[in-house]
Amino acid sequence: MMTVTPVYAAVPGLIFVALSIRTISMRRRHRVAVGYGGNA
Questions:
Q1: Once rounded to an integer, what is the mean pLDDT over residues 11-39?
Q2: What's the pTM value of the predicted model, to 2 decimals?
Q3: Per residue, what are the HEC states of the chain?
């Protein structure tokens, strides 16, 4: 039987990974440099 703690740890971890992958792909598509804020 699985305990609840690993599930509560895995769900935010998977969300974080998914959002990171999406952010990286969008930055590459729009050719945004690392640390670019647009207000320099």
A1: 88
A2: 0.69
A3: CCCHHHHHHHHHHHHHHHHHHHHHHHHHHCCCCCCCCCCC
